[in-house]
Amino acid sequence: MGWSKERLQEVARTRLGGAKLIVVANREPYIHRYKDGEVEWIRPAGGLTTALDPVMQACGGVWVAHGSGDADRAVTDASGRVGVPPDDPNYVLRRVWLSKDDEEGYYYGTANSMLWPLCHQVFARPVFDQIHWETYRKVNETFAEAVLEEAQGGPALVFVQDYHFALLPRLLKAARPDLVVAQFWHIPWPGPEKFLVCPWARELLDGMLGNDLFGFHTQNDCNNFLECVDRALECRIDRERFAVQRSGQVTTVRPFPISVDPELAQEYLGDDWEDRANAMRKKHRLGDRALIVGVDRVDYTKGIPERLQAVDRLLQKHPELKGQFHFLQVGAPSRTHIPAYRDLTEEVNMLAERINWEHGTEDWQPVVFLNEHHGPDDIFVLYRASAGCVVSSLHDGMNLVAKEFVTARDDDRGVLVLSQFTGAARELPDAVIVNPFDVEEMADGLYASLTMPAQEQERRMRRMRAQVDDHNIYRWAGVLLSAIGKLIPDTSEVLPTQVEPDPLDVIEREIARENYITALRLTSG
Ligand code: G6P
């Protein structure tokens, strides 16, 4: 039986046994902002909100997040609450207000200048700054207060997201030992040689071990995490069950590869996607040429300069392609106060300009760089209208653009060129898998996206679509909730007798099988 919104709702009802669901994530699923004096709302770029919003729409509850839009306060009540989605509310967004100094130390500092580079193997140097660290601690406390307020008066499951809140689980458990606390880390986890250089490694790990359940995308991330814990802290590690015991608290550590809601593609495409695609072609002077698209936040982990270099190399190797295609990069501005991000935007602009100057003609520019936020309505039209999509991350926990692209291709066409260093590559071996550091291989991957025979595209795309349909976001959340449900003390008594195999066991067997197949594929070249 496949996973749907309805099946997840059923799992949530039985497994949570009436406990309130509270999600905590730094990024809010909807941002209100002023445009021409009016309040409008947008969905932010990034995989976390894309994945979790459908889960919250299915299960209901409260999402606690930083209120980051300039019109956010204008639409919330006195405690920072507002119903979302704004056009048809069915869960609550509780906004937490942060000062500029808070944002500087916690978001731009510890989270995105220290933990982000530390966890991604992309050779960006992490910044270790005492003041940033103290602010990170303080902001984790601020969020703990908001969560505890939301959890008042009954049982609750607090589901914490990502590297912004490593200290939060321990704080919550200290205040309310009865809360069930789980966390999902959306980015990779490094090995001990890398992670343990952090001056606050022990405090971070200890905070994370306040969780009952801790999830990563891959088994490899889980192994790295346990290795770090083993080296840094006094604790007992049960390697059979993948659990850590410390100060009376047991934390189970498991892989849960995240996904998307495949049905949203049809919603975003609608009946008029071709008209909208033509309008975009006209606006950006794309004619009816083939398109290769890239869709990312402008982030140094995404390998955007590497893919531009590959476009350059492609045109050197195949000059006959001049005038035949465009490489269109949608690059949502991201974390722009951090120098490395500003420098990257400049680098991408300069590279695009150089390639266009070198290969372009009066009426044809190979690279089109759209450095602004685009909503899913536009992005899905681009996915659907393109010959190929390139995901060339240098290191990426999962990468949901790869999965979104596949869900948009109900025509069973289109080529996905996918970095081997993404979590998604394990699940989508039918993509053209590339090493983003290898410019020749990347250029050949782009060439494949423009020349692959239709039958071959169809064969690969069908398999990728079946994989994402089956391993969708409802399955991810359902399996996670099942695992969490097992940890909620009294729900086991009210659970119906299990009539089908435990989804957690099923997914574990599947992950093992998929890892085995990927290993075979890699060793056989
Ligand atoms: C990654 C992180 C998320 C984050 C997203 C967008 O996917 O794992 O936590 O929300 O990037 O980044 P931003 O800094 O804009 O929230």
Automatic annotation (TrEMBL):
Pfam family, one: Glyco_transf_20
GO biological process: trehalose biosynthetic process
Superkingdom assignment: Bacteria
One GO molecular-function entry: alpha,alpha-trehalose-phosphate synthase (UDP-forming) activity
InterPro entries xref list: Glyco_trans_20 (IPR001830)
Cross-referenced SUPFAM superfamilies: UDP-Glycosyltransferase/glycogen phosphorylase
Family: Belongs to the glycosyltransferase 20 family.
The name this protein goes by in its record: Uncharacterized protein
Organism: Gemmata massiliana
